[in-house]
Design goal:
Elements: H1 6-10, E1 18-21, H2 25-29, E2 39-40, E3 48-52, H3 56-69, E4 75-81, H4 93-102, E5 106-112, E6 117-123
Amino acid sequence: MSERTVLQKLHLKPGQRLYLSSPPEHFLGSLTDLPEGALTEEPGEASIILLFVRDRTELESAVPAAVGRMTKGAALWVAYPKSSSRPATDINRDSIWSWARKWGMDAVASFSIDQRWSALRIKVP
C-alpha cells in the first residue's frame, strides 16, 4: 500500500483550490500531484488554507488574518515545526490547540507533512 500524499491528507478534491501561506522552499516540490490551477494567491478563493507558522508570533498573526478572509466551509490547516526540527520553536500541537480554543476554535485532525513539519486542522465556527 502506498503512502498518502500531502494533498490527499489535506482532502483536496478535484475543482478545489489551495492557498499556501509561507511554505518552506522544499514544500512546493513535494506537491507532485497538484492539479493545474489548484493553487490560489487569495485565501478567499480557497477551499483549503494551509498556513506554515514557525513560532507563536506567526501563529497569532497568521491565523486571525486567514480566518478573516476565509469563505464559509473552507478548511484551515496550521503547519508547525516538529519538536525534533531545528531551529527550536515555541509551538507544538498542544499549544496551538490551546490557543485556538481561547478563540472559540477547535483542533479536529492532524497529520505529518514530512520529517520537519506537522499540520493541525482548526475548525472555525
